[in-house]
Amino acid sequence: MENASKALIMAGSILIAIMVISLLVYGYNQISNLEQTRANAERDTKTVEYMRKFEQYNRTLYGSELLSLANLQEDYNSSEDVRNEGYTPVNIRVEITKEIVDSKYFTAGTHSLSKISDDRKNIEAEISKYEEANSRYNNKSVKYYSQRTNREIAIDFGFDPPSLMLDYDIRPNFLEKDSTTKRLLQDIEQYNLLTDIYNEFRIGKQFECKEVNYSRDNGRITEMLFREK
Fold first, then answer.
1. What is the C-alpha to C-alpha distance for residues 29 and 168, in angstroms, rounded to an integer?
2. Cα(63)–Cα(202) distance, integer angstroms
3. pTM metric for this prediction
4. Helices within 56-169 (DSSP H only)
5. Contact at 8 Å (CB) between 57 and 210?
């Protein structure tokens, strides 16, 4: 009788232990499911926000706005949804119909928006070199001298132009007698060309959104096409 009681107590203890473990596992699964649901909701909210932002560009854009759209595209295409969840990246194409004179950037033709973004990064890198102080040019930048008259440049480099000469009388060939200032004039010309190209694209060109395609599976934007007006 005593052994039977001990067996019942042991069996009851095991049953209670099993029930406790089951409750712990159930609770853990519930918490895990809750966290996953919350994570999915946050991801979906973020995705909806992305799509809303893309929709805002479904209009005519200046080049500068197109560059902002390139940043948005890059952010979305590198997001967890695209990298890990198998969602389709957003593919944006740009048709440039008018050449920018003497430009190797933003050339006429159909380009991916990523290519346009690369052009921006490359031209900004080129421009930045001319905006840095240069020991050759009295520790001043090409940008600095691009905002000075030829007369002011001549004086800064130790030349002594006649005091009665007006600024427009200090011809470039006056400075071209010296190899350093000759190089400076060439750098100023290149700097001005690059900034003119960049400004023409950013504020001188407009692009109309001609096409927007959506995924049949989830309604997300998958493609956009912009054409220069």
1. 82
2. 4
3. 0.76
4. 63-77, 80-84, 113-130, 142-146, 150-156
5. no
Q: Tell me: the pLDDT tens digits for 184-214?
A: 999 999 999 999 999 999 999 999 999 999 9
Q: How far apart are CA 60 and CA 229, in angstroms?
A: 9
First-residue to last-residue Cα distance in the chain: 98
Name the residue type at position 178.
D
**166 three-state secondary structure:** coil
How far apart, in whole angstroms, are the C-alpha atoms of residue 92 and residue 77?
11
Q: What type of residue is 204?
A: G
224 φ, ψ (degrees, to nearest 5): -140, 145
- With beta carbons less than 8 A apart as the criterion, state whether 151 and 165 touch: yes
**Chain position carrying tokens 């006429």:** 108
Q: Look-up: residue for tokens 């067996």?
A: 7
Sequential DSSP letters for the chain:
-HHHHHHHHHHHHHHHHHHHHHHHHHHHHHHHHHHHHHHHHHHHHHHHHHHHHHHTTSSEEEHHHHHHHHHHHHHHHTSHHHHHS-PPPPEEEEEE-SPPTT-SSS-SEEEEHHHHHHHHHHHHHHHHHHTS-BGGGTTB-HHHHHTS-HHHHHHHTT----TT--GGGS-HHHHTTSHHHHHHHHHHHHHHHHHHHHHHHHHH-EEEEEEEEE-TTT--EEEEEEEE-
Each residue's pLDDT tens digit, 90-132: 999 999 999 999 999 999 999 999 999 999 999 999 999 999 9
Q: Token pair 């890198």 is at which residue?
A: 125
